[in-house]
Each structure stands twice: as structure tokens, then as C-alpha cells.
Amino acid sequence: MTTPTTSGQRPRTCRACGKKYEYPVKGSDATRHHCADCAGLDEDARKIFERLNNRVTQLENQLRRLQEKSAPPQA
Ligand SMILES: [Zn+2]
Predict the structure, then answer these.
(1) What is the CA 56 to chain-centroid distance, rounded?
(2) Where are the domains of the chain?
(3) DSSP class of residue 7?
(4) Ligand 1 mean position to 72 CA, how many Å?
(5) How far is Cα 75 from Cα 70, in angstroms, rounded to an integer?
(6) Long-range CB contacts for residues 38-41, cutoff 8 Å, separation at least 24
(7) What's the start-to-end Cα distance of the chain, in Å?
(8) Which residues, 6+ apart, have CB-to-CB distance to 22 below 8 Å?
(9) What is the b/e burial string over 15-46, where b = at least 16 CB atoms within 10 angstroms of the residue's CB?
(10) Rounded Cα gap, residues 12 and 66, in angstroms
(11) Rounded to the nearest whole angstrom, what is the distance from the C-alpha of residue 46 to the centroid of ligand 1?
(12) Helices (H), the chain
């Protein structure tokens, strides 16, 4: 899943904590997929964060679907 980009810098979402960050930023430890905070984490710990973040994202999506079902947007 790659999106072609014309400019190098654009907001990214950290895979581990879900934080929005800019990349690349001079002097920042952030990587393509992780913000500066998480880039400094131990790799094993970061994998756990990524797993938890995936679950949170899934739960948020489920919650949104449930909310839409119980309270449909008024026309
Ligand atoms: Zn992060």
C-alpha cells in the first residue's frame, strides 16, 4: 500500500502510538512509520504498541459503525 508523493514532507501517523507527525524533519529521530518518541523504543516494545494500536483502531471503527447504526445521521 504505497501512495505516490510529489513532495517529501507530509503528515504521517505513527504506527505504534497513532500520533500525527511530520516526516522527514531535520534533527528528528522519526522514521517513515514511527514518530520520534516511538523510533527510540526497543523494537520488541514497539511491536507490542503496534499491535495494541491496531486493536484500538479496529475498536474505534467498530464503535463508529455501532454509533451510526443506533443514531443514523439526520437528513
Ligand atoms: Zn509514536
Answers:
(1) 10
(2) 10-69
(3) S
(4) 34
(5) 15
(6) 38/14, 41/16
(7) 35
(8) 9, 10, 11, 12, 28, 30
(9) bbbbeebebeeeeeebeeebbbebbeeeeeeb
(10) 27
(11) 9
(12) 36-39, 43-70
**Cα 66 from Cα 44, distance rounded (Å):** 33
Q: Mean pLDDT, to the nearest integer, of 35-40? A: 96
The distance between the two most distant Cα atoms of the chain, rounded to a whole number of Å, is 49
Q: For residue 71, name the pLDDT band (cuts at 50, 70, 90).
A: confident
**How far does residue 35's CA lie from ligand 1's centre (Å)?**
4
Cα 56 to ligand 1 centroid, rounded to whole Å: 14
Q: Is 14 exposed, middle or buried (0-12, 13-18, 19+ CB in 10 A)?
A: buried
State pLDDT tens for residues 3-22: 554 556 789 999 999 999 99
Residue 73 has pLDDT above 90, yes or no: no
